[in-house]
Each structure stands twice: as structure tokens, then as C-alpha cells.
Design goal:
It is a single chain. This protein has four helices and 13 strands. By secondary structure, it is of the alpha+beta class. A hairpin with a 2-residue loop joins β3 (18-21) and β4 (24-27). It starts with a strand and ends with a helix.
């Protein structure tokens, strides 16, 4: 299992080792101890989600209030997606930047998304199926969105006509989210992460 830090602080790409033979394939797609070594604290497993999407569906950009936020460990168990992560932490050196990682059922990569980052994806195949491990349970009053097609984000979605949910279609732009005070701050997110590391120590 290989861990690679991406350009957004705290965002990690995980590439598992695949073991295949004529019978099929086996891999360890999540190891709490290895992730904790890299992140500095264990991922609290509070909820597991499964999402199935048709080709061209865009979901996101979703994020949660910090604290407690919602860290995610995401992999694609069927098909393929472009997984997109946006730095929504006001004051971060990479605020507003996005990263795209292809997740599929061939290389079986995963991404670890810490609290304060926004998450979304575009399905590259029919029945694209994502599995999420989450650090907190779903809290509808603390969950928010930023419009995935906002030109200020400039996300290059690989879909001619992205299909959005009504919720995502009505999401505020990045500028509107900033002006309304909806977004978490970089300092708050750093302090929260440090508190998790202190608890671990």
C-alpha cells in the first residue's frame, strides 16, 4: 500500500497492492494503522456509505461544518469516476484549488479527504459505485454544498451535460458561500486536526 500526499494539504491518494491469479484478485483497500501513521491519528469509523451513479452524473461539492466535519476514505468498487476534492478552508494556502483523482475497479486507488475539504465526483461509467468510510454520521443541519459548475472553481468535469441533483443545482457559488460565512476556516480545521492527534498521543 502506497500513500501519496497531493497538492492540497491533508489530501492523500492511496494505491493498494493487488494480488491476482486465475481465480481473481485480492487487495487490502484500507488499513487503519497505516493510514494513522500517515495522517497522525486514526480515522474514526462512524458510518459507511455506498453511492451508485449513471455515466455523466456529477455529485458535490459537499462539505460539513468543522468541528466535527466529516473525514472520508473513498474508493470505487465498480466502474470508474473522476473524484474531485476542493480546498474550502478559508485562509488555506490552496483555498479554492481542486484536485482530480481517477478512482476505478482496475487500480483500486482510494483517497483520504480530511475535514474541511469539499468532495464531489463525476461518474465515468454506468453503475459507478463508490464506497465511503466516514468519521462522523450524516448531520443534515451541518452538511453544505458549493455549486460544482461554479466557474470560479473551474473544475474540468469530464461530462458534456453533467446531471446534477436538485440540491446541487441550487447550491451557492464559492463567492456566495464565502460571503455568507458558510465555509470553515483553515485555522479551525488545523486546530481540530491537532486535537485528534493530541487525543491519539
Amino acid at each position: 500500500m502506497k500513500f501519496r500526499e497531493l497538492s492540497i494539504e491533508g489530501l492523500i491518494e492511496i494505491t493498494p497492492q493487488l494480488h491476482g491469479d486465475p481465480r481473481g484478485m485480492f487487495t487490502e483497500w484500507y488499513r487503519f494503522d497505516r493510514l494513522a501513521e500517515v495522517v497522525g491519528h486514526p480515522l474514526r469509523l462512524a458510518q459507511a456509505n455506498l453511492s451508485v451513479s449513471s455515466r455523466g452524473v456529477v455529485r458535490g461539492i459537499h462539505f460539513a461544518d468543522v468541528p466535527p466535519g466529516q473525514a472520508k476514505y473513498v474508493t470505487c468498487v465498480r466502474g470508474a469516476v473522476l473524484d474531485v476534492i476542493v480546498d474550502l478552508r478559508v485562509g488555506s494556502p490552496t483555498f479554492g484549488r481542486w484536485e482530480g483523482v481517477r478512482l476505478d475497479d482496475v487500480e483500486r486507488r482510494a483517497v483520504y479527504i480530511p475535514e474541511g475539504l469539499g468532495h464531489g465526483f463525476c461518474a465515468l461509467s454506468d453503475d459507478a459505485t463508490l464506497s465511503y468510510l466516514c468519521s462522523e454520521t450524516y448531520n443534515p443541519t451541518g452538511e453544505h454544498s458549493v455549486h460544482p459548475l461554479d466557474p470560479d472553481l473551474g473544475i474540468e468535469w469530464p461530462a458534456d451535460q453533467p446531471l446534477l441533483s436538485a440540491r446541487d443545482e441550487a447550491a451557492p457559488s464559492l463567492a456566495e458561500a464565502i460571503s455568507s460565512g458558510l465555509l470553515p476556516t483553515y485555522e479551525t480545521c488545523k486546530a481540530f486536526t491537532e486535537s485528534l492527534r493530541t487525543q491519539q498521543g
